[in-house]
Structures are given as C-alpha cells and as structure tokens.
C-alpha cells in the first residue's frame, strides 16, 4: 500500500478510494451545472428549547438531488464546492432560500406567539467569511425578504475562527451589530483558547455531537458531564446561549437540560425535513 506516499498515490492503491476519487471528479464538474439546474434543496431540522420543549427555529441543511446518484449529503459536496469556489454562489442561494423560508414561517400563523417567530440558522463556510460580499449580500437578502436580522443566525465553525484576526472578524462583527446572531458551530472539536471566546462576536455556542455521543452510555461518564457543565457555565458567564447537537434520546435531553443547556437539536426531536413540517411541529407544541 502506498499509504505514506501522499494523497493521490494512496487513493490509487485503494480500489474503493479510487472509485471515490472518480466520483469526486465527476461530482466536482457537475456542481456548477447542478446549481443552474436547481438540483439543490434544503431540509430544516428543528431547534428545540430544552426548558419548555417548544420549537424555536431550525437549521437549514443543504442536499443535492443528483440525477444519477440520488440525494448526496453535504459532507460529500461542500468540501468540493469550497475547493472550486462554488460555495460562494451556493452559500448565497442557501441563505436566500432560508431567509425567505423564515419569512414564510413568520407570515403563516403557526408559531407560538409567546415564543416569538421561528428563526433560521444557516451554515457559513470559511470561504464565505473572507468573501467581500458577505455583509452586503446578507443585508440585501434580509431586506428583500422583509426578515428582521434577529430572525437569522449564521453558524461558523470553531475551526474557521481559530486564530482569526480582526480582518476576518470584521464582517461578522458588522452582522452581529445589525442583530444577526452568530453561532460557533461544532464547538469543542477544535482547540480554541476558551479565553479567546470573549473576542469573537458570537452569541451562541453549538456543542458538537461528540459530546452527546459520549453520553450514550448510561450512566454517562461523570467526567464528560463535568466538562459539559463547565462549558455551559463559562458560556453563560459570557452571555452566550448553548445549543447541543445530536440529541438522540430522551435521557440525553433530560441530562442536558439539567446541565443547563438552552437549546437542543437531534433525531430525538426530529430529523431534518421539509419546511412545512416545521410549521406543523411548532403548531403541535403550541396547542
Ligand atoms: P452541522 O452544521 O454540524 O450540522 C449538523 C449535522 O448533524 C447535520 O448533518 C444533521 O443532519 C446531523 N444531525 C442532526 N441531528 C443528529 C442526530 O441526532 N444524530 C446524528 N448522528 N446526526 C445528526 P448533515 O445535514 O449531513 O450536514 C453535515 C454538515 O454539512 C453540517 O454539519 C455542515 O457543516 C455542512 N452543511 C450543511 N448544509 C450546509 C450549507 O448550506 N452550507 C455549508 N457551508 N455547510 C453546510
Ligand atoms: Mg451547523
Ligand atoms: Mg454543527
Ligand atoms: Mg457538527
């Protein structure tokens, strides 16, 4: 095996990886056409308030309905889109669709009025962060849809912001000043200096699924629980809300609520699905 001979050689030594490489090439060339042909679609996964179980919004998750391969997950094509630069128009498309969707949820009576309008979370790739049009595009998209900036949350991964200098943070700061929430996604998987959090214009920490996975065993490892408790207390002392990803069981939800987490997302509540379903879920818990 040419395992140590570098990326391409290794892939040629492994038939399965070779097949993947061919597909990867095929997918990469198909990407720009896919955007033109409207092969992308968005699923929405509810974000649930742990305190009262109400649906507060949803994360927008993009999928590619490939004419030959069927539905392709973002883990497969987002890295390709980032590599080719297509992520900028694709990301803008996701943002525009999601913002319009949030406006549609708001306009349709359905959300619990006491809980406020349903909000939408949109993932931003690092390439979008450094793209000069980010702030103006976002402002324009919000204005055109008539959505308040406070109904939008942009998710940026912790790793994208590690060691970020002021130039990189500037557009996020401007968006935060306008009222857009910024969430630090996949938190706990990078190696960010916790003290550094103060410097970032974020208002939400999204604890990575790795934390909830660690809680699958019952009773959960007390050290894992202490770590979550510590992160939650630090986050709250910095005025950050804590969302947990990957909640798959009621026991996990109970434990995370006790640990002080604010919002949860995961299969226990709902898998990602079509936008109308969010309305139904929100209605169901409002009645
Ligand atoms: P993410 O932002 O961390 O999104 C959460 C992922 O966890 C989603 O995977 C979601 O379907 C999955 N998930 C949710 N609940 C559970 C659960 O209870 N158990 C398990 N095992 N998984 C759960 P998905 O949809 O495959 O997306 C993967 C990643 O692709 C996202 O991770 C995000 O980084 C990226 N992505 C998705 N849509 C976009 C987009 O529009 N733009 C960009 N830049 N990235 C996107
Ligand atoms: Mg995310
Ligand atoms: Mg995440
Ligand atoms: Mg994640």
Automatic annotation (TrEMBL):
Domain EAL: 24-286
Official protein name in the record: EAL domain-containing protein
Organism: Streptomyces flavofungini
Whole sequence portion shown: 439 to 725 of 725
